[in-house]
Amino acid sequence: MDYIYKSANLEGIHVTFPETQAIFDGVGVHGIKVEDIIKINNLKRAWQFMLDTLDRLTDFDYFCRLNMIK
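The structure corresponding to this sequence follows.
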């Protein structure tokens, strides 16, 4: 969860940790743009993909698949 919060802030999405936690849990947050909520959910899916494929070789195909997650 912490990585999603930090990644969101690196992407320029200005949310607090509790707001990120709420979005992670599927709760809407007042005052956060829908596009930012979508971006945070995309970060969540990307992190889930990486954690689910820790044993996979990180080659060009892997990074292409990671980049396509939306």
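The chain has a mean pLDDT of 93.
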